[in-house]
Write a structure and sequence with these properties.
disordered N terminus, five-stranded parallel beta sheet, 18% strand, globular, Rossmann fold
Length: 139
């Protein structure tokens, strides 16, 4: 007997914020090695390319919008996307770009637990334990 299930699984966006750039990098590298169907958008790269002549920050804002559009294209192609976010100023734009697909995770200690869907205290967990927690979150 063969059963056919026509279940449409929506791609997911996982936002990792907090911690240091190195912490996020190590965690996302391990996460991606375990999840080949995921793509990574590193917003840290946008921080490094800011134009010093852009005094009001519009260039960085438009770069962030373009980056979010690239992530949306990956979603359309059926990939899940993990976004690493270095700056709190970027969170609103990312959240607005993915109003229903986004799950946000703060890595480290924070009192702003209401801002994020999940907080993982990476000072008390190894990279492997953190990735196991993320795996349960996306399963």
């Amino acid at each position: 007997m063969v059963l056919w299930c026509d279940i449409q699984i929506e791609p997911m966006v996982l936002l990792l914020s907090g911690g240091t750039e190195v912490t996020r990098g190590v965690i996302v590298d391990k996460f991606l090695s375990d999840h080949p169907d995921w793509r990574h958008l590193a917003l840290e790269d946008l921080d490094a390319t800011q134009d010093p002549d852009d005094v009001i920050g519009m260039g960085a804002f438009f770069a962030l919008l373009v980056a979010c559009e690239c992530a949306k294209e990956a979603l359309k192609e059926g990939y899940n996307v993990v976004i690493t976010c270095p700056a709190a100023e970027m969170l609103d734009t990312v959240e607005e770009s993915f109003p229903k697909d986004l799950t946000s995770v703060y890595l480290g200690k924070t009192r702003a637990k209401t801002v994020y869907d999940r907080v993982i205290d990476t000072t008390k967990q190894s990279v492997g334990e953190t990735c196991a927690t993320l795996h349960k979150l996306v399963a």
